[in-house]
């Protein structure tokens, strides 16, 4: 959808032939993307089970690991091309098969290191606090329950409708002026109104590999009483991390985390000894 929305106004500036050429290139790129996604089974995160499921592309085996055992990192690489120096940023995610020790990895590109890290933070917020914790869900932040359209896992026509409703609400509240509203409508009229969102919705529905039976069964929701709880270590790290950030809100997060982790491990290791002494 992003390629299409760039190609359309750019093509209009260089005439109908340019528009047709850029639109054709965007369509070819979209088709290649869809075909590639059809061959790759997605990684799934189950917050009720607190587990992650990878599918081995060779054997089709479902590899299920605890959420807290997942490793993530952001990698930055640079290289020279005929067009100049290029820098790439990727979010890496890895899990280890507990039965065989095989390592499975996934790389997700981002335009900047901060955005790549933000992708992981979005996953973490979802797994730890639920879908309503994501910063983009502002439509029903004052409501008891979020708008169901906000929880859909793809952009589509509903995304356009939500944005227009938000625009009207912000205009009524005085957060947006008439000039901003005017150009919002001009931009969407130039880019054929809802067509890009229809393309995005079609891309999502067409570009997904069928889920194996094991993953479909694992993905089913659980009764509330069967939901997994965070480990004692994670809860203890959270407590110490919150205290460190309260004392020094501008401190380095990585340093805070290392201190919180060490303090949590020390506290947990001392608990059995204290219990035995008290007993």
Give keywords.
279 residues; alpha+beta; three-stranded antiparallel beta sheet; 51% helix; globular; disordered C terminus
Description:
This protein is of the alpha+beta class. The chain is built from 9 helices and 6 strands, in the order ααββββββααααααα. The protein has 3 domains: 1-39 and 136-221, no CATH class; 42-128, PH-domain like (Roll); 230-270. The chain has helices spanning 2-13, 15-38, 113-129, 157-172, 178-190, 195-206, 213-218, 232-247, 253-278; strands spanning 44-46, 51-55, 62-66, 71-81, 84-96, 103-110. 11% of the residues are buried. The chain crosses the membrane at residues 6-30. It holds the Pfam family DUF6708. InterPro entries: DUF6708 (IPR046554). Keywords: Membrane, Transmembrane, Transmembrane helix.
Low-confidence stretches: 138-142, 274-279
Helical coverage, percent range: 40-55%
**Class from helix and strand fractions:** alpha+beta
Radius of gyration: 23 Å
The tally of strands reads 6
Tell me the distance between the termini: 65 Å
Keywords: Membrane, Transmembrane, Transmembrane helix
Protein name: DUF6708 domain-containing protein
Organism: Alkalilimnicola ehrlichii
């Amino acid at each position: 959808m992003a390629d299409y929305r760039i190609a359309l106004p750019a093509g209009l500036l260089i005439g109908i032939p340019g528009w047709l050429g850029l639109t054709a290139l965007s369509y070819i790129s979209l088709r290649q993307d869809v075909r590639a996604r059809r061959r790759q089974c997605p990684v799934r995160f189950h917050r009720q089970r607190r587990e992650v499921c990878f599918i081995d592309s060779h054997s089709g085996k479902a590899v299920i690991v605890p959420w807290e055992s997942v490793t993530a990192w952001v990698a930055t690489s640079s290289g020279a091309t005929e067009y100049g120096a290029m820098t790439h940023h990727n979010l890496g995610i890895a899990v280890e098969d507990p039965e065989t020790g095989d390592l499975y990895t996934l790389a997700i590109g981002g335009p900047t290191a901060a955005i790549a890290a933000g992708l992981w933070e979005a996953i973490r917020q979802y797994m730890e606090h639920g879908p309503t914790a994501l910063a983009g869900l502002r439509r029903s932040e004052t409501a008891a329950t979020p708008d169901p359209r906000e929880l859909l896992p793809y952009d589509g026509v509903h995304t356009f409708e939500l944005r227009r409703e938000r625009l009207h609400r912000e205009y009524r509240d005085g957060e947006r002026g008439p000039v901003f509203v005017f150009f919002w409508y001009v931009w969407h009229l130039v880019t054929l109104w809802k067509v890009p969102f229809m393309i995005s919705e079609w891309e999502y529905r067409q570009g997904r590999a069928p889920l194996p039976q094991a993953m479909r069964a694992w993905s089913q929701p659980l009764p509330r009483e069967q939901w997994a709880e965070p480990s004692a270590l994670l809860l203890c790290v959270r407590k110490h991390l919150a205290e460190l950030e309260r004392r020094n809100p501008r401190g380095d997060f990585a340093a805070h985390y290392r201190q919180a982790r060490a303090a949590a491990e020390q506290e947990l290791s001392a608990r059995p000894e204290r219990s035995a002494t008290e007993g």
